[in-house]
């Protein structure tokens, strides 16, 4: 299963193609639109989200709500394009009028300067339009489709926020996916600890007033994956590495860890390894999950736990020092309309790319041509594991 996205932030639309998705899956478009709305939400977002109302259009690979096994073609329109139709016109040749709003003062921390150097652009709008996290809307749509497949296979996952700036909003005891979902729906920060909401709102308001930005940490928990997905046999077959690459591939993610991650390095082996249990009714299991459901690059049957650290948003309203691309004068960096923090939408994006990577692994491990066959194979495999 492969996917591609195309489209610029203020261009006409985002386009996606998902190839290799099983036939016979009934897709719920409302569920996709709910995920898209969740990605647009969250405290600390900028004004762009007041303009957009992301809606999925499925224009290939689906008939009467059921996937055909052919490539799924997806579209999300950029409503803001109406205000940028001349500047972002794909067809008309450049004129002095339609090349206004040039970007020549690269923002530290964004893709502007390195992207301009690589592609030879002197108007850095040519970089920022695609490096913008607007593109993650399409990854969320594709992720939601993959999440629906996983649900049909009895696998559930959720992404939530465990830290915003320096405020940790984590719970001490590990929770089940349904319990996490219940808690995070109660606030606009996707955090479990409700008593921290006001503190975090205040922090975001204060940071916004100061023209500054915030990052944070996200966790994704996946339940009911069978043991043995991925492989220890070669480096590029390790599923934990694939999940880490997918999470790191999300804009502004600077760190990814599995389970206790970096904290495990400071602990003793006896505190980190998850004791093995066997019970006649359920088969093999563990009494803890410090290793986040992975041993040898393979799932071990425990919940998979992926953590991702997001840096603060690089565009600051209190603009950082930069250098003009054309004059080499020291100037303030360009300021594009921006989020104060995007940790909440990023949690939906990370959840989505984890769902895509898991769906890719499962459809590569078993016959992924058709949902029913996939379900039968997975049920038989789970039974085999129980009796191992
Ligand atoms: C959902 C989401 C929203 C974002 N919003 C902004 C934004 O408003 N302004 C900004 O400068 N960066 C924003 N970013 C981060 C930039 O897209 C990112 O820092 C940039 O593409 C450079 O890539 P890198 O940080 O991975 O190196 C956002 C990221 C995500 C995931
Ligand atoms: C458009 C989205 O996020 C954008 C991501 C982004 C960036 O630099 O990554 C910069 C801002 O772009 P704009 O100037 O259009 O407001 C964000 O709004 C979105 O998430 O839908």
How does this structure look, described?
With 388 residues, the chain is of the alpha+beta class. The protein has one domain: Chorismate synthase, AroC fold (4-Layer Sandwich), CATH 3.60.150. The chain has 12 helices and 17 strands. It has helices spanning 29-40, 48-51, 81-84, 112-119, 125-131, 136-152, 177-184, 197-209, 239-248, 269-272, 343-365, 371-386; strands at residues 2-6, 13-19, 57-60, 62-63, 66-67, 72-77, 156-164, 167-168, 216-223, 253-258, 276-279, 283-286, 294-295, 298-299, 304-310, 321-323, 330-332. β13 and β14 form a beta hairpin. Residues 46, 110-111, 131-133, 136, 250-252, 311, 313-315, 338-339, 342, 345-346, 349 line the site of flavin mononucleotide.
Give the key terms.
binds ligand EPS; alpha+beta; globular; four-stranded antiparallel β-sheet; five-stranded antiparallel β-sheet; 20% strand; binds flavin mononucleotide; 388 residues
Q: Please tell me how large the radius of gyration is.
A: 22 Å
In which order are the strands of the major sheet placed? Answer: 8-7-9-15-10
Count of domains: 1
**Straight-line distance between termini:** 29 Å
Heteromolecules bound: flavin mononucleotide, ligand EPS
What is the fold-level CATH name, i.e. the topology? Chorismate synthase, AroC fold
Describe the sheet with the most strands: 5 strands, antiparallel
CATH class type: Alpha Beta
Catalytic activity: 5-O-(1-carboxyvinyl)-3-phosphoshikimate = chorismate + phosphate
Subunit structure: Homotetramer.
GO molecular function, one term: chorismate synthase activity
Pathway: Metabolic intermediate biosynthesis; chorismate biosynthesis; chorismate from D-erythrose 4-phosphate and phosphoenolpyruvate: step 7/7
């Amino acid at each position: 299963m492969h996917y591609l996205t195309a489209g610029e932030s203020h261009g006409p639309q985002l386009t996606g193609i998902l190839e290799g998705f099983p036939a016979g899956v009934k897709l719920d478009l409302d569920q996709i639109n709910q995920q898209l709305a969740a990605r647009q939400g969250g405290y600390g977002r900028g004004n762009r989200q007041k303009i957009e109302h992301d809606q999925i259009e499925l224009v290939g690979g689906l008939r009467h709500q059921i996937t055909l096994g052919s490539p799924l073609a997806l579209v999300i329109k950029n409503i803001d394009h109406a205000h940028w139709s001349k500047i972002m016109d794909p067809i008309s040749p450049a004129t002095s009028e339609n090349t206004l709003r040039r970007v020549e003062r690269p923002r530290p921390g964004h893709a502007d300067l390195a992207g301009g150097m690589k592609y030879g652009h002197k108007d850095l709008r040519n970089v920022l339009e695609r490096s913008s996290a607007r593109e993650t809307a399409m990854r969320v749509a594709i992720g939601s489709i993959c999440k629906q497949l996983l649900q049909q296979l009895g696998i559930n996952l959720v992404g939530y926020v465990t830290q915003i700036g320096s405020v940790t909003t984590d719970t001490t005891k590990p929770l089940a996916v349904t319990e996490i979902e219940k808690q995070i729906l109660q606030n606009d920060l996707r955090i479990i600890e409700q008593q921290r909401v006001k503190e975090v709102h205040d922090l975001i308001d204060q940071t916004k007033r100061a023209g500054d930005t915030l990052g944070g940490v996200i966790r994704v928990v996946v339940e009911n994956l069978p043991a043995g997905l991925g492989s220890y046999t070669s480096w590029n077959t390790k599923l934990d590495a694939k999940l880490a690459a997918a999470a790191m591939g999300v804009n502004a993610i600077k760190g990814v860890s599995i389970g206790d991650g970096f904290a495990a390095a400071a602990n003793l082996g006896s505190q980190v390894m998850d004791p093995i249990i066997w019970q006649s009714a359920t088969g093999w299991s563990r009494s803890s999950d410090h290793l986040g459901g992975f041993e040898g690059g393979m799932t071990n049957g425990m919940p998979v736990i992926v953590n991702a650290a997001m840096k603060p948003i690089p565009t600051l309203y209190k603009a950082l020092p930069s250098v003009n691309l054309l004059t080499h004068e020291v100037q303030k960096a360009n300021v594009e309309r921006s989020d104060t923090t995007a940790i909440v939408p990023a949690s939906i994006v990370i959840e989505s790319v984890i769902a895509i990577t898991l769906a890719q692994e499962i459809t590569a491990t078993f016959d992924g041509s058709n949902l029913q066959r996939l379900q039968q194979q997975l049920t038989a495999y789970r039974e085999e594991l129980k009796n191992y």
